[in-house]
Amino acid sequence: MSNATHLACRECSREFPLDPINVCDFCFGPLEVQYDQGAIRSRVTRERIEAGPRSIWRYKDLLPVDDDYIVDLNVGFTPLLRADNLARKLGMRELWIKNDTCNPSWSFKDRVVAVASSRARQLGFETLACASTGNLANAVSAHAARAGMRAVVFIPHDLEAGKVLGSAIYHPTIVAVNGSYDDVNRLCSELADNRHWAFVNINVRPYYAEGSRTLAFEVAEQLGWRAPRQCVAPMASGSLFTKIHKGFEELQTYGLIDHAEIRMIGAQAAGCSPIATAWQNNTTNIRPVKPDTIAKSLAIGNPADGYYALKTMAATGGGAASVSDAEVVEGIQLLAQTEGVFAETAGGVTIAGLRQAIQRGTIDPNESTVAFITGGGLKTADAVEPHVTRPIPVEGTLQSFEHAFAAAGHN
Ligand SMILES: Cc1ncc(COP(=O)(O)O)c(C=O)c1O
Ligand SMILES: [Zn+2]
After folding, report:
1. Topology of domain 80-106+212-387, per CATH?
2. Residue 180: pLDDT band by 50, 70, 90 thresholds?
């Protein structure tokens, strides 16, 4: 049995059973999973976690899923790389890259879907669905295949070829909506009311959101059971960002790490930066925008958790960065060329956001910092293709090689 006990409204604290519901019917606040903290405290130790599988399921005691229903694609426990080359370029002392490109469908969305699909199975659903900017649809399609469930994924019509293929290969039903993600989300919210489908980020969103906490659990464990002083993460709906911080806080509550102050910095692309813009304008009133950026995975104009992301920034002494598309491409190249990690555009946003936050003094270059790289680069190949090294064509002879090599300016 999991240690999850009920759902509670973030605004009015009203309690609800662990059902497929995501909003409080009293005040419309979002619902969040609550746990039996006493049971967790008495059972969970560092040793128990370390003896678990090398996946997010080593933190099963902290997740709202019962053993019998786990959909297991071996998600998580991705590398935490010490990034000394990149740190040197940025003038930093201790920088780490959490490399979530290494997940089964190459993004952190496998974490949230692993939890949501397992809970959906437990709740008796046979169909997994989602409103997606691309990566979520990939993770839902992969997990549905693994679980023997039906998948119906909804995406905006103008996604990158790599993101569409990244779902299609698992043979889901893909619905391409003629509109932006926000149109997709509106349609799916209506559908969630009249179809018996588990929309992972709508009616089962409370369970989905819990999955992102595993990023904090892993980072803390990989750092030798301590939290970093600063984190930089990309924001679309803002859910990931808030849950990373919540994950570190919970580890402190359960005595698994010492007390730590963690500054949270969220990054968005300037072409879709409703949260960063509200932060810069010193307001919690988020104005929806019409996205126009190459960072399509982050192109949510009306972010569901934006308000809570702003509260997390304020509470932690953090902030927000907003970067141009050119900076996103530079960020992808910089990470690849200094550390050998090929990120998608969201990772470019993180690295460019990190650089901006250092320049503006939001991040202290002398404090330990983790940058979250949440998706793999081959899915957004179009964004970087015009900017990368071209092969030198040669015949298979020494003479041809020497000639062409020199002609290309090499020696
Ligand atoms: C690669 C990647 N990183 C980050 C995010 C941001 O997620 P959230 O909506 O939880 O802010 C997304 C969302 O789709 C994503 O695909
Ligand atoms: Zn409420």
Report:
1. Rossmann fold (3.40.50)
2. very high
